[in-house]
Design a protein that fits this description.
Strand order of the largest sheet: 3-2-1-4-5-6-7
Number of strands: 14
Shape: globular
Number of domains: 2
Structural class: alpha/beta
Helix content: 25-40%
CATH superfamily of the largest domain: Glycogen Phosphorylase B
Radius of gyration: 20 Å
CATH topology of the largest domain: Rossmann fold
CATH architecture of the largest domain: 3-Layer(aba) Sandwich
Length: 356
């Protein structure tokens, strides 16, 4: 019955997490005998293609948001890019109108791409960030969220990769002003599995936007010179699988889904950014971590603080000494990860297909 349903899935290019959290949805739509088309940048397409090589892939321009090396300059750097982002939103909407007709699309899944709504096709917007944090100004936060909600309300429904009760994102995931909201639970591409035999003392998972990704990598290497622990860095650069050895670190530019899961489960300590998709992965694998939020990225800073307050993770600012942070991390007595329904999104996929 569902064989002819065509699903278009388009993740944002702002970090790899938007692409990785689309993977369980792709797998479930395929399980329901749907045809899936993925549209994205070369980087996001390549990442998804490694797991789903036989899908149809289309290129679409990314938002190409650049960051600042300074936390305090970041809001101004982002603000300067708003006109460019608005043009991309307008452009992708025009692209969608043509693509839907040409390819007879039944459902559009947009992970944080604001222009992919359509008047005659079911369009689904995926985001966990429904209350954008602007700590510099409560008034500006209200304005930003009013604009954010006005864009989201153009879609048929908003899927939140979180839980209505005991939400991972807490205030981020509990908005006011969204018309059609459905919680779909944890969207991790990993499989639930026990820890493996320890191979590494510390694993640094440092994907994310430049220049902050490189700045963190340089800080890690400089602080750990002379440290004899078994250390690996995973850069999250999917265009190359090169492996390097630098100052006692084994550095992987990229790992496949299976390899990355195994490295996480066989590492004693995980140090990573506080990206929401990374947190969903760690919760599913029941793995605590030391979180270093990207400076100035208020969503990550909020998540790291809240999850540290709940005694599930431990936060360290990028300006602080990482070795000292790891010493404190070792002394922590963490709470058990919440027992979430890890297949909630599957129910939502089946329900959605049944209505088309």
């Amino acid at each position: 019955m569902n064989k002819n349903k065509k699903i278009l899935i388009v993740p944002l290019d702002w970090g790899l997490g938007h692409a990785t959290r689309c993977m369980p949805l792709i797998a479930e739509f395929l399980q329901q005998n749907c045809e899936v088309i993925v549209a994205g940048t070369e980087t996001t397409n390549e990442l998804i293609r490694q797991t789903f090589p036989s899908l149809q892939y289309e290129l679409i321009e990314g938002y190409e948001i650049s960051y600042s090396s300074s936390k305090w300059k970041l809001p101004f750097v982002i603000a300067k890019q708003i006109p460019k982002i608005l043009l991309k939103i307008k452009s992708e909407n025009k692209w969608l109108q043509q693509f839907v007709v040409k390819n007879e699309i039944d459902i559009v899944i947009s992970d944080n791409r604001y222009g992919l709504n359509h008047p005659s096709v079911k369009t689904i917007f995926i985001t966990h960030q429904l209350q954008i944090q602007v700590p510099q100004s409560n008034r500006m936060q209200r304005i930003v969220n009013k604009i954010n909600h006005s864009y989201i309300n153009k879609f048929s429904v908003c899927w939140v990769p979180d839980y209505e009760i005991n939400a991972i994102g807490k205030e981020l995931s509990n908005p006011k002003g969204i018309k059609h909201l459905e919680y779909i639970g944890n969207l991790s591409r990993f499989e639930k599995q026990d820890n493996l035999e320890i191979e590494n003392d510390i694993m640094f998972l440092i994907s994310g936007p430049e220049p902050q990704r490189s700045l963190l990598e340089q800080k890690i290497i400089s602080e750990f010179i002379g440290n004899n622990s078994r250390k690996i860095i995973v850069r999250g650069l999917p265009k190359t699988s090169e492996i390097l050895v630098v100052n006692g670190f084994t550095i992987f530019n990229h790992l496949t889904k299976k390899e990355l899961q195994e490295k996480i489960l066989s590492s004693k300590i995980i140090v990573c950014r506080a990206g929401y998709s990374t947190i969903m992965d760690l919760i599913k694998l029941n793995k605590n971590a030391l979180l270093i939020p990207t400076p100035g990225q208020t969503e990550q800073e909020y998540l790291a603080k809240e999850l540290t307050a709940r005694n599930l993770f431990f936060m360290l600012n990028q300006t602080e000494n990482i070795l000292q942070g790891i010493t404190l991390f070792k002394e922590m007595k963490f709470e058990k990860m919440p027992e979430y329904d890890l297949e909630l999104y599957k129910q939502q996929v089946k329900k959605t297909i049944g209505k088309i």
